[in-house]
Design brief:
This protein is mainly beta. The protein has 6 helices and 61 strands. The model is unreliable at about 1-30 (pLDDT under 50).
């Protein structure tokens, strides 16, 4: 009996140890797993014990396996010297992911070390011969991208004059003020010193909704004539802002670099803790790291993409939304593509591109930080309804986008062009110079395949930052039946405040935006308006808060003759509109028949019911509240304090007894906007930590006024008195 008991114990111990081995090495027990390691070899068999070395070898091995395959990458940094291309010849149903929470980085760039000390502009620096063929525009170290020299260090220079002899299309009649191409402008000679190698310098010109990136061909310091290697994509204007990059004379601060292409020498000023002996920098070279075309169900999980490159386009680039910026990860003609818990950091241009005929795709729970252009860019073709190639069914959810458009300034955080049934929700987007989320690309009422999109519960703040114009937190263009904009919190949107600058809107429905439901949103502290409709048809705007915006709370361009459908531009119902400093409530009310308002609550934080409205936006010819009522612009809305907890400190929770609640306004939980609470974003970021109103700050208010305002109030009281008598 004793020996039987001992045998049982021995067998049990064997079973326990076996189960423990399976638990520890559970990944290697997967029959369809392939392993890759920085210490591996592409001659190996791809097993846990004998991993491969490259992703290219892994995708070749995956072809030999049946069923779904997982490729695991062990910890380390994998340099992709060329684009990894997936085609119809590759296996579908493959997931590429980091192994067991290990840190895996995909990067591209030429490493430079072996620097020698030197002196530049009276400052200690280091230099390295990198070859005259080196043409990188991005340089990064192990932590972040580094600053290419800028002149001036801050602020801008201004174009002195524009010579029509340098216009390449003087016969252009349509939109010549915007879209004429120029190969030169005149600078103020004293603004720009004589430069070493001016043809190494890039001029950055800020237009209305576009920034130019132009290589200088020559500069004449006597006349100030600056000539470029290609024509501009937008018209130069006198006094327009610009600055210069890669200027040798501006190299004098820690962390700055300059590439002398004529000598093939890279100059850099060391930062604290760096030394010439131990320094390694990377010049971004490869633009697209991953390209997927005509292969389905490819996924990337828990991968960090970092540090690719870009080139200045040789031709005139498209003038809006950085439409043609290069991309890091590209997918087209494929179904089931997925980015899950990945991180994109220090990307030179666009992070993820989903192109023509991409369906059932997702970019979920990922981090985008310091992105040169768009974080996520969806662009199909404007096919007819029913075409099988339509780009559709895409989820862009629970992503943290922190810094976009850092190279291509007019890039959009999430750009959706010619695609439908796109769900862009629960994203936190901030620190960009242009629009955060944009959907559309068809002007007016023409056919558009962009419809039925859901843009909801996003937290958008600190965008625009005074750089460009004609932008907003959320932007739409054209007919978009079934599109819903709901539950978003948008604050601190600021356009160019200078002469000729305009815009800076919270929710911006541009030309022809129609059949869109805008509800339950909070847009406040925007430089211009919380809501702006250029023109459109049958939009519903209900249960929103538009508050403390600089020019007006809602701008409704309901121009006669530009409304289709029922003839109604927008129906405003049960919204709260809070001004301060006599900024307007509604502006640009051009057509009574196309503007419907019902149950809205309006108030001025400082001046109470002293409210203003305008037909054309002219602040000096506005209508007071009484005038707007007597002229029939305001019929079914009322002036009353909505009783926010503390609107002055951006707490927009409603107190009990609010007249808005009595009118039917439904409370909104703004804490739901942004990334999902407790979720894991990227490799290790915790979601839902940003309060909806954190880092808010006041905008300058544009006070409106009405001529003879005190007398008109008295007059309307007299009129109402006698109307009451005769009514009896």
């Amino acid at each position: 009996m004793v020996w039987k008991k001992a045998l049982c114990i021995f067998i049990a111990m064997l079973l326990i140890s076996g189960e423990a081995a399976i638990a520890v090495n559970g990944f290697e027990k997967e029959t369809n797993a392939i392993y890759v390691s920085v210490d591996g070899s592409d001659e190996a068999d791809g097993s846990f014990e004998a991993p491969l070395a490259t992703i290219n070898a892994a995708k070749e091995l995956a072809k030999k396996k049946s069923g779904d395959v997982t490729v695991y990458f062990r910890q380390g940094s994998y340099t992709l010297n060329d684009t990894v291309k997936f085609t119809y010849m590759d296996k579908s149903g493959v997931t590429y992911k980091a192994f067991n929470g290990e840190k895996v980085v995909f990067t591209a760039g030429a490493p430079y070390s072996g620097f020698e000390e030197c002196t530049v502009n009276g400052v200690k620096a280091v230099k390295k011969y990198v070859g005259k063929d080196a043409s990188f525009n991005i340089l990064f170290n192990s932590k972040t991208t580094l600053s290419r020299t800028r002149y001036p260090k801050s602020g801008y220079l201004h174009i002195k004059a524009v010579d029509e002899n340098y216009c390449i299309n003087p016969e252009l009649e349509v939109d010549a003020d915007y879209h004429s191409g120029y190969t030169a402008f005149l600078a103020e000679p004293k603004d720009i010193p004589a430069m070493k190698n001016p043809n190494n310098v890039v001029a950055r010109v800020l237009h209305f909704w576009k920034d130019e990136m132009l290589n200088i061909k020559s500069y004449d310091p006597a006349t100030g004539l600056v000539q470029f290697t290609k024509p501009s994509s937008m018209t130069f204007h006198e006094n327009e802002r610009y600055f210069l990059e890669n200027v040798f004379e501006a190299l004098d601060e820690e962390g700055e670099w300059y590439l002398d292409k004529s000598e093939g020498v890279l100059y850099y000023i060391l930062q604290d803790g760096e030394s010439a002996e131990d320094l390694t920098l990377w010049g971004g070279t490869t633009e697209t790291l991953i390209s997927i075309d005509s292969v389905d169900n490819i996924s990337f999980e828990n991968i960090i993409f970092r540090g690719n490159g870009f080139k200045v386009p040789l031709q005139r680039d498209f003038s809006q939304a950085a439409y043609d910026a290069p991309v890091c990860v590209s997918c087209k003609n494929s179904k089931g593509f997925r980015i899950q818990n990945c991180e994109f950091r220090d990307i030179a241009a666009c992070g993820v591109f989903l192109g023509e005929n991409v369906q059932d795709a997702a970019v979920d729970s990922s981090v985008f930080e310091n992105i040169g252009a768009q974080a996520v860019y969806v662009r199909g073709d404007n096919f007819k309804d029913g075409d099988p190639r339509v780009t559709k069914n895409i989820d862009i959810t629970n992503n943290l986008i922190s810094g976009f458009g850092k190279v291509f300034y007019n890039a959009v955080g999430i750009l959706i062009i010619h695609a439908n049934t796109v769900n862009a929700s629960f994203n936190e987007i901030h620190d960009g110079y242009y629009t955060a989320i944009s959907a559309g690309w068809v002007w007016g009422y023409s056919h558009s395949i962009t419809y039925n999109n859901n843009i909801s519960n996003n937290l958008i703040y600190d965008i625009g930052q005074g750089w460009l114009s004609d932008m907003g937190g959320i932007y739409t263009l054209g007919n978009q039946e079934g599109t819903v904009i709901s539950g978003n919190v948008i604050h601190n949107v600021a356009a160019d405040p200078g002469e000729g600058g305009y815009g800076g809107w919270g929710i911006y429905l541009d030309e022809g935006s129609s059949y869109i439901l805008v509800e339950n949103n909070l847009a406040y502290a925007c430089g211009s308006d919380g809501y702006h409709l250029h023109y459109g048809s049958d939009n519903i705007v209900r249960n929103n808060i538009f508050a403390l915006n600089g020019e007006s709370q809602a701008r409704v361009v309901s121009a006669p003759g530009r409304v289709e459908g029922s003839g109604n531009t927008a129906a405003f119902t049960n919204n709260i509109l809070l001004s301060d400093g006599k900024a307007q409530i509604f502006s640009h009310l051009k057509d009574k028949a196309a503007f419907t308002e019902n149950g809205n609550i309006m108030w001025d934080l400082t001046f109470g019911n002293d409210l203003y409205f305008s037909i054309d936006g002219n602040k000096d010819k506005a209508m007071g509240y009484e005038t707007a009522k007597h002229k029939g612009w305001i019929k079914n809305s009322s002036a009353a304090d909505p009783l926010f907890n503390d609107a002055g400190s951006f707490d927009f929770e409603l107190s009990e007894g609010s007249p808005a609640l009595e009118k039917g306004f439904k409370k909104i939980d703004y804490s739901q906007a942004g990334t999902k609470s407790g979720s894991v974003i990227g490799v290790s970021v915790t979601g839902g930590k940003m309060p909806y109103n954190k880092d808010s700050f006041r905008q300058n208010y544009t006070a409106a006024r009405e001529k003879f305002h005190p007398f008109l109030i008295i007059w309307y009281k007299i009129v109402d008195f006698f109307k009451g008598i005769f009514a009896k």
